[in-house]
Amino acid sequence: MTARARLVPEAGASTAEYAMTMLVACAFAGVLMGIIKSNPIKTLLLGTIQKALNIG
């Protein structure tokens, strides 16, 4: 066994960790989009934006 092989025993581990992180991030984004598209939240956000812009 070479010195490099002893130092890096899990060569593909970081790729798997990145893949899992991306999967969790996409799932979280999906949940957030579902919440934001709901009517009560949409109404609340629209009202807040209108107040901020002094439209409503």
TrEMBL record:
**Which keywords accompany this UniProt record?**
Membrane, Transmembrane, Transmembrane helix
- Give the protein name, as stated in the record: DUF4244 domain-containing protein
Under the heading InterPro entries, the entry gives: DUF4244 (IPR025338)
**Which Pfam families is this protein grouped with?**
DUF4244
What organism does the UniProt record list as the source?
Answer: Kineosporia babensis
**Chain segments annotated as transmembrane:** 18-36
